[in-house]
Amino acid sequence: MVTTGIHTADHFATLPSEQRPHLTVEGVGALTTLLPVLRSHPTENGSVPT
Description:
Blueprint: H1 9-13, H2 31-39
């Protein structure tokens, strides 16, 4: 889940466990630091596309 200003991360913490995000990122800009890390680590569903 990427926070965009509509909801904060706290909003999603109140959801039932099956609806909660596995990961929360503070804004789209934070994805630029996260994607290189994901590319270097295999995921359950395969690698992250480049």
